[in-house]
Amino acid sequence: xxxxxxxxxxxxxxxxxxxxxxxxxxxxxxxxxxxxxxxxxxxxxxxxxxxxxxxxxxxxxxxxxxxxxxxxxxxxxxxxxxxxxxxxxxxxxxxxxxxxxxxxxxxxxxxxxxxxxxxxxxxxxxxxxxxxxxxxxxxx
Length: 140
Fold this sequence. Notes:
A hairpin with a 7-residue loop joins strand 3 and strand 4 (95-104). By secondary structure, the protein is of the alpha+beta class. The strands form 2 sheets. The protein has a 4-stranded mixed sheet with strand order 3-4-5-6. The protein has helices at residues 6-20, 59-73, 120-133; strands at residues 49-51, 54-56, 77-87, 95-104, 109-113, 136-139.
């Protein structure tokens, strides 16, 4: 392996931060930057995106968040929220976590899920949430 200087490491960290949309933070245990830790492989090869202290499960989810943020600032939507949990039944044994819930100016409330792959488990949970809460789930 090549000998890296502090300037090389600093440039590497800047490049990583530019790709991820935020500055990499130090590890609370060893003090090294995030780029020094091995990455855990995500299911279906989605790459997590980190913006400050907020982590998005995929670049698609991050892009949709940016669109919703712009739409809210422009006054196109009333409000939105991330990562809302819906209980599938009264026993609390199962839950569905929506990527976004969006309230439109006309009063419609839509649950949005950024999907790369539609799994059978997701389909069952989505149908249960739609039936129980009478909400529309839109995949993006």
